[in-house]
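Human: You know discrete backbone vocabularies at least as well as I do. Show me how you would write down a chain together with its backbone fold. No explanation is needed for now; the record alone will do.

Assistant:
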Amino acid sequence: MPAFKLRMRTSAAILAGAAGLTALGAGVLPATANAATASPQAIAAQIVPANQLASFSQIVAHESSWNVSATNASSGAYGLAQALPGSKMASAGSDWKTNPATQIKWALDYMNTRYGSPNAAWNFWQANHWY
């Protein structure tokens, strides 16, 4: 299957899964989605605004394939959003190396601060293949 079709299916699956989750409160996962066992995608669906989730998901899929410990061998960029240096994510929590929620919170703040939103960050990524 071509990579772009796989990405489209993956994005559709993320959004379908996200649509099935209901928030019990800001940043709280549903009882059926234990924070310790929830996928990074499910956690993102609880943190990222719904109208920004598809763009956020595209960036993370391209940058790290949703691998919390993804490391770029050339630059040392780390995590879901490929922060450089990875230690920047400590501003979102001391557990930045292993906690997808911490990485997602940092990435969302980064995208909002630098680009205005994940949608704007994704537009930039598509034009430049980095963000």
